[in-house]
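Following up on my earlier thread - several people asked me to post the actual chain instead of describing it. Fair enough. Here it is, all 462 residues.
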Amino acid sequence: MLSRHVRRALITRSRVSRRGVSTLLQELADRGFIHQTTKQKELSNALETAPQTLYSGIDPTAPALHIGHLFPLMCVLHFHLRNHNPIYLIGGATGLVGDPSGRTKERSPADVKQVEDNVVQLTASIKRFFVGASEYASSRGYQPTTKAVNVKSNLEWHGEFKMLDFLQQVGSHARVNTMLARDSVKSRLDSHQGMSFTEFTYQLLQAYDFYYLHKTLGCRIQVGGSDQWGNIVAGVELISKLNSSQDASEPFGVTTPLLTTASGDKFGKSAGNAVWMQEDLTSVFDFYQYFIKVEDADVYNLLKVFTLLPLDELHAIMTDHNTAPEKRIAQRKLAAEVTELVHGAAAAEQAVLKSEVLFRQPNASLKLDSGALLKAFESDPRLRRCSSEEIFSVPLGKLAAKHGLVTSNAAARNLIHAKGLYFNDIVVPDSQYVTKEQDLVGGRVLVLRAGKDKMIVLALEH
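Reply from S.P.:
Thanks for posting it. Predicted structure:
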């Protein structure tokens, strides 16, 4: 057993300073990714010397990634882009137990089949994210990386681990007084809910994950949220106790801060449905709009962590933004960058175009491309298909009423009289005005708008 003095020397809680850190750690610190590290100087030297293997974990509580996962994913991406070797570990085993960190009560028992399905789907989602993120990074000036991120489930080793073997190999090295002192345990023991033995052992299971990956894949670094500090420390200590070789590589821990809004709420935890990083669960347009609606007080921090734009460029964006906050320059940049990161450049372009059409800035001219516009609105109920007979013979006021843009023909006439009905941002001159061929964008599309907010897209069927 290690002495208390040795243990304290091994685990040094250090916040990244401005001196003596590697380029990677400095950038992570500048962008707001670093909360604590173990042995900062040694970690810095290791990262400067050679490619390192690191891991970060995710519990399979859902079948897909959501924006709450984006912060740790981006932190790992920075390691990946600097030629380090990430492992993304899905808790196929620990997800059945439930991590007590940051929770006031025990999770409901997980369904085994559901966890298995979630592991399969998350594996595909994580791999897909890093492929797309690498493409995004290349387009932002980063050297392309050919390394694939290794995605594993810890059921691979925990599933065959007999209880007696676990108690002998892991439990014998765990001191109960140390386990009781962990923040995740203390807060629960002081509560009315208490803590089950199952949850109490979670930190040992996670500690063994780090040991197993260190032993089999040379993984030296674990990256986790600030609430994972105790579990990460447990892993570092277990590796040190079980490694008899003096040549064994030293393990390190890195934690990220809790990402919160200026109002103190956890980012991504808003009222209503989750914002998923998967198009069939949250449309690309709704994903884009979520970031458009970010508050001014939060947008700079989110630009730092959710984009790969240089910090000096972000400063310039914020300078422009602050001259006219109502234009939401920073939010539009954030939304476009994150949408491209997650969904690709083509999808981001469509979301931007759709947003410009739907929420055009006052007095701003709109340049439309019919093909891009139809692609952007292809699954939107505001897209209406019209025959040539209808579009070239029915007055625009009546078309507006027929397709629900206004409530009636009378309402359309009143709107036209008030100069409030537009086609392609041109005021409809009178109630009998009929569309001409030259009015159509690309010979196919007419954007019909009532007032500032309501609009439909009329598409000519060939």
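The chain has a mean pLDDT of 86. That should answer part of your original question.
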